[in-house]
Amino acid sequence: MEHVLAMLLTTAVVVGFGTYKYLRDLSASKFKVMNLARNYAHAIGIEAIYNKANCHRIDSYYGNQLFQEMIAKLEASHDYLVKHGQQELIQDIAMLRQSMHGFHELFLQKSKIENSIELDSNCITTVSFKSTILKVLDHIQAIGEPVQLLLRNQVKTTQLSADPALFECLIMLNLWEISKSAQAIDHMVSLSIRDTTLQYGYAMDKLSNQVPLVLPALCFCFSTDTIVHTALPVYIVSGMVNAPLPTAAKTFYQIESRQITEAHGGYVEIIENESSLTCLYVLPIQGDKVMRFKNYKPADLVVKIS
Question: Helices marked H in the chain — which ranges?
Fold first, then answer.
């Protein structure tokens, strides 16, 4: 009887161990697939960014060259008409040159917009940024990632207007990637939140009477440095700029974060060297006036396509 019980117990142990090993291997396989899919998505994303950026550079370069050649020919014709007193034709050529300059500006603006993201106005809501930060940190630590966050919240404001999914993505990307950077010690990331302002419509021409728009803002400073970074009293948003290309897969998140921030009307500054990495994102507290919105409703577009 004891021999039979021993055999049954041994069989149960073997079966249990086999089941455990199967579940463990299955879990490890799923994790490998998820990690592979993430790396693949990053690679595809980087390839798309390179393609868009290179197309933009080609458009800008050849577009400028083409316009310069056309304007040069018009200048020669203009000089000829001036010598022969053809006033009406001179005015026509002047208007044509002005139209060409305007079309050139639209051409460049189109190239810049194609390399950016826009927001759905229906998704903008009030976001509690502290709750979002803690939520993201819990998600990262729940899957066993050794992220340590040093949070310095030095503002009285607790909320800001944003797309909650994109804002959460911004926090997730930076906590995840910066904690894995070569500059991070023991996966430590410090996040300082400070009050500041954003200035828009800055006139380069001092003779202009344009009054710049100034909005209250929050500065989110992610850093591997233990030194507390102070925020400037004002950050100037001079307009849409071309984002630099990522030098490697590990810096892809900086391009994504820049696009999210600029879509909300914000300011981005990345400072990186061998010893430290600092990613600064400034978002307006109420940025409805400066956000870049889609000129269509995504739901309507899906219905039309289907």
Answer: 2-83, 87-114, 129-142, 164-179, 252-263, 298-305
